[in-house]
Amino acid sequence: MVLEIEHRVQRKLEALCRVVQERYGMIMWPEMAWDLRGQAAGQANARRNLIRFNRELAERYPDEFVAQTVPHELAHLVAFKKFGGNIRPHGREWRAVMIALGAEPRRTHRYEVTPVRKLRLYAYQCHCPDSEYQLTAIRHNRIQRGHMYVCKRCLQPLEPKTAAY
Ligand SMILES: [Zn+2]
Ligand SMILES: [Zn+2]
Question: Which of 2, 61, 112, 122 is most exposed, with minimal Cβ within 10 Å?
């Protein structure tokens, strides 16, 4: 069975390969494998023209994966093909390719920095009976800075859960 996230990654990779062709005049057609495990989201093998992806992290963080990991790994292959093997992995050549691909040239994937099991969630509630929302630290921090998330049913803003749980 091919999962939805694999389709998304495939489509993103195809779109990025078209950008590479326009910008650099290079035809890239990397092989994909979904056999990576552990903390690394992706791994590029330039000599084999292969990108390995981590399915578990892709399912957990699909948006970040498509927006960041896919260009990150493709940029390694492009930088290798264009500049050769004597460049630093995340040096200025790689960063230039990332920018050309419309991606933020960050060195690490955000989820590589935070171990999955340590990801902290914050309990919130609205006015619906027994409501409980598990918000990520990103959303929690936005609320702390004054951003508001509203329940679609009761239309009340989410508040930190006060009752014992
Ligand atoms: Zn890298
Ligand atoms: Zn509600």
Answer: 2
73 annotated active-site: yes
pLDDT by 10s per residue, the chain, length 165: 567 899 999 999 999 999 999 999 999 999 999 999 888 899 999 989 999 999 989 998 999 999 999 999 999 999 999 999 899 889 999 999 999 999 999 887 656 544 545 567 888 999 998 888 888 888 899 999 999 999 988 999 999 987 443
Range 4-113 classified under CATH 3.30.230.10: no
Query: Given 59, 64, 73, 159, which residue is catalytic?
Result: 73
Q: How far lies 51's CA from each of 11, 115, 141, 149, in Å? A: 14, 22, 34, 38
Distance from the alpha carbon of residue 131 to the mean position of ligand 2, in angstroms: 7
pTM of the complete model beyond 0.90: no
Contact 70, 9 (CB under 8 A): yes
CA distance 75 to 87: 13
> How far, in Å, from the CA of 55 to the mean position of ligand 1?
17
